[in-house]
Amino acid sequence: FCTLQKRKLQLSPEQCSNFYADQYGKVFFPNLTAYMSSGPLVAMVLARHCAVSYWKDLLGPSNSIKAQRTHPHSLRALYGTDELRNALHGSLSVSTAEREIRFMFPEAILEPIPAGQRARDYLNLYIKPTLLAGLTALCKEKPADPMVRTVVSVLCHTP
Questions:
Q1: Which residue range or ranges hold the Nucleoside diphosphate kinase-like domain (predicted)?
Q2: pLDDT tens track of the chain, all 159 residues?
């Protein structure tokens, strides 16, 4: 994972109610909002390919007691204490993650990671010209250091 944003904050009970609005009406909702507003937390935006599903796998079951039995090496098994105090939060889906990122980081600009032809177009437009100019300059310079010279030679003569 790559950490794109990180912020330490303390949510009010009202903010917790808004964040966990999908849990409203459930028996544990008052305890959840009270607990989540009882002290500071660290919110992060993590990025990688299929980030939501990988993060959910690392977290394990939301109930830490169950996680200790069924997924003993998961983060919630290691750091959580029960179903309410499960140590870490993870978005359930990409759309939920987008909503939660906007909630915790209102200034964040969410852009999809390009794939397929869009990725190739981006690389050709922005990365390739810069890389080509840098490698061309290195090839012309012919560095004195034998290790650097070898690397430059390989880079300059690899199609």
A1: 4-112
A2: 999 999 999 999 999 999 999 999 999 999 999 999 999 999 999 999 899 999 999 999 999 999 999 999 999 999 999 999 999 999 999 999 999 999 999 998 887 777 889 889 989 998 888 888 887 887 787 777 877 777 777 776 665
| pTM (predicted TM-score) | 0.69
Question: Which stretches within the chain are classed as H helix?
Answer: 13-19, 29-36, 51-59, 64-70, 75-79, 94-104, 116-122, 128-141, 146-156
- The neighbour count for residue 56, using CB atoms within 10 Å, is 17
Indicate which residues carry an active-site annotation: 89
Residue ranges and CATH numbers for the domains of the chain are: 2-104 (3.30.70.141), 116-156 (no CATH)
